[in-house]
Automatic annotation (TrEMBL):
It comes from Austrofundulus limnaeus. One of its GO terms (cellular component) is brush border. Keywords: Coiled coil, Membrane, Sugar transport, Transmembrane, Transmembrane helix, Transport. One of its GO terms (biological process) is D-glucose import. Residues 14-470 form the Major facilitator superfamily (MFS) profile domain. This is Solute carrier family 2, facilitated glucose transporter member 2. It is found in: Membrane. Belongs to the major facilitator superfamily. Sugar transporter (TC 2.A.1.1) family. It holds the Pfam family Sugar_tr. InterPro entries: GLUT, MFS_dom, MFS_sugar_transport-like, MFS_trans_sf, Sugar/inositol_transpt, Sugar_transporter_CS. The lineage of its organism: Eukaryota, Metazoa, Chordata, Craniata, Vertebrata.
Length: 503
């Protein structure tokens, strides 16, 4: 089969290299949680609220003192900032994805921002040389800024170089690498590996390690043919890039598709973030893209990731840290299932199955936690519901929103759309991370009923408003949305966007 030849060694290397940025993203998401108590102790010592006398006391006294130290207002503030600043950095930089990707290209863009990742790793790895709380917060802020960029650039690059028949599977690689990064951080964050008093700076500093490997491999990767042809008009360079990615196959259909997309892009011109928000021409696609990301974050998945240890403890698990690692393993396995299914079952179908399954699991989780004191076997119901919740998430709602945005938009508005969707994702992530403890204190065991309601609403929205994009070209997908805009108003607005001078 001709499509079989489309998976070449160069394509595999390019996807693997780009996905190292996603691996780094996942590692940075998960690494801060395991050594929390140890980091809080070092913060307290640096802030002068931890006495050396307590440090040399017996273990029981030290554990009690450490617990009290973690509740000191200054320590709580700096710890919360260490966690939250990562999402704030991502929110800010997500608006720059289109600019960085277009400045020198997708490959050089990823290469440029690796400086940020290495700098962040050094700040955290060397935090004992100065004030740990300042160094870690600074490193987390820079790493968040890097991850906001890479979480947009990686899906953009992979989506543009992937053959149409494998675009869904390769697009899912971003999420697969992210969950592998989370799992790695959970495993090496155990106290007998690196999550201990001596090695925790190295644990945090390793956040920048994948950037070093990626920097060595990126020069071997071809630039996106769509970027070269559609944005720069370099047909010969695009042909060379396509040849490297697809091998000795007939490139006529690919070049013809890009030629048509370039003609469409020339008519519609570049669309800025402001123009995209104000325009009714792209409103339907944008609404779908943002709702896909909102459904991902407000599903409650990050409540599981951020607070899984506490949730497992509440469910009666004696060793919650290992159950949390179990969640990471399930996370990875079912992302692989999504990779295998997404180009067969389709984006819309897998998202609907995932959201519907998560809704049922959220209800089961609530029932299990509510009655676990009355029936001992209910703790198994809670645990099973958590594992199934994560499984359904990774089948569809986890990976698909990251790459479907690139499919929904043509070349003109694509960078702006990815930037807005990324900002929406990071902002939602921040809101859930900051508010979940308060919501949990308010609703207690019924907290996941709230997420069940949100999941049901998301399922209904996807069913009625999101089209299937499996096996369709970028041009065909854009046409599905634009066919309802063939009105005088729509045509006039397209002309207005074309004449806009905004970048």
């Amino acid at each position: 089969m001709e499509t079989g030849k489309q998976i070449t060694g160069t394509l595999i290397v390019a996807v693997f290299t780009a996905a190292l940025g996603s691996l780094q993203f996942g590692y940075s998401l998960g690494v801060i949680n395991a050594p929390q108590k140890i980091i809080e102790k070092h913060y307290a010592r640096s802030l002068g609220v931890w006495s050396e006398r307590s440090d040399s006391s017996v273990n029981d006294t030290e554990d009690m003192s450490s617990s009290e130290t973690g509740k000191h207002p200054s320590v709580v503030m700096y710890w919360s900032l260490s966690v939250a600043i990562f999402s704030i950095g991502g929110m800010v930089s997500s608006f720059l994805v289109g600019f960085v990707g277009d400045l020198k290209g997708r490959v050089k863009g990823m290469l440029m921002i690796n400086v940020l990742a290495v700098a962040a790793g050094l700040l955290m790895g060397l935090c004992r040389m100065w004030k740990p709380h300042i160094m870690v917060i600074s490193g987390r802020a820079v790493m968040g800024f890097y991850c906001g960029l890479t979480s947009g650039l990686v899906p953009m690059y992979i989506g543009e170089i992937a053959p149409k028949a494998y675009r869904g599977a390769l697009g899912t690689i971003h999420q697969l690498a992210t969950v592998i990064g989370i799992l790695i951080s959970q495993v090496i964050g155990l106290d007998f590996v690196l999550g201990n008093d001596e090695m925790w700076p190295l644990l945090l500093g390793l956040s920048g390690a994948p950037a070093v490997l990626q920097s060595l491999l990126l020069p071997l990767c071809p630039e996106s043919p769509r970027y070269l042809y559609i944005l720069l008009g370099q047909e010969q360079e695009a042909r060379k890039s396509l040849h490297r990615l697809k091998g000795a196959t007939d490139l006529t259909s690919d070049l013809e598709e890009m030629r048509r997309e370039k003609q469409e892009a020339d008519r519609e011109a570049r669309v800025s973030i402001r123009s995209l928000i104000l325009s009714s021409v792209y409103r339907r696609q944008l609404f779908v893209a943002l709702m896909m990301h909102l459904s991902q974050q407000f599903s409650g998945i990050n409540a599981i990731f951020y607070y899984s240890t506490a949730i497992f403890s509440q469910a009666g698990v004696s060793q919650p840290v290992y159950a949390t690692i179990g969640v990471g393993v399930i996370n990875t396995v079912f992302t692989l299932v999504s990779v295998a299914l997404v180009d067969k079952a389709g984006r819309r179908s897998l998202t609907l199955i995932g959201l519907g399954g998560m809704c049922c699991c959220a209800v089961a989780m609530t029932v299990g936690i509510r009655f676990q004191n009355d029936f001992s076997w209910m703790s198994y119901v809670s645990m099973s519901a958590i594992f199934l919740f994560v499984s359904f998430f990774e089948i569809g709602p986890g990976p698909i929103p990251w790459f479907i945005v690139a499919e929904l938009f043509s070349q003109g508005p694509r960078p702006a759309a990815i930037a807005l969707a990324g900002c929406c994702n990071w902002t939602s992530n921040f809101i859930i991370g900051m508010t979940f403890p308060y919501i949990q204190a308010w609703m207690d065991c019924y907290v996941f009923i709230l997420f069940a309601v949100l999941l049901f609403g998301s399922t209904v929205f996807i069913y009625f408003r999101v089209p299937e994009t499996k096996g369709k070209t970028f041009e065909e997908i854009a046409a599905m949305f634009q066919k309802k805009r063939k009105t005088p108003t729509g045509i006039a607005e397209l002309q207005q966007l074309k004449t806009s001078s905004e970048a």
